[in-house]
Automatic annotation (TrEMBL):
InterPro entries noted in UniProt: Acyl_CoA_acyltransferase, GNAT_dom
Protein name per the record: N-acetyltransferase
Coiled coil: none
Organism: Nocardioides dubius
Residues in N-acetyltransferase domain copies: 9-164
Amino acid sequence: MSKQSTPPVEIRSERPADVGAIAAVTGAAFAGAEHSAPPVRPGGPPGEVDLIGWLRADEGWIPELSLVAVLEDEVVGHVVCSRGLVDDAPALGLGPVSVRPDLQGRGIGDALIREVLARATEDGETLVALVGEPAYYRRFGFATAAELGVEAPDPAYGDYFQALALGTEPHPQGRFRYAAPFDRF
């Protein structure tokens, strides 16, 4: 299937007025996803929606690394990096990443990820980790975290736990921990 063209999207920092739209996009993007976190509220949206809300209230929240994709004045995608740790050294956890289902496969997720990585590098971050499909994230430079000396918080993640060294400074090595809200699943 070839990518359909999409008008240019604006990538910008999340604003308070975007919270509801981000929840809607995230809920739609993860609805029925095989790997999706189960609803925290019975009958509610996928767990990723609650996770983003919990992250906003957590000390690991980094507002400048919560970005939205806007198309024709509508939020159509979202990405967030939150504070993680490798042993006691700061690192980033990337995700969730979501794009409105009817616009998936058109480069919006790619643009969001590239921008959040560029901003993280500019901010002096040295490592970002995530759980995701290796074939997809390889295009951004991610590798199996173990190749970078980073141990997954859960060994069951296997090769799906990936990391990317940012900037020119040495990156931390050791066991990775996501921001506390990830432990609620």
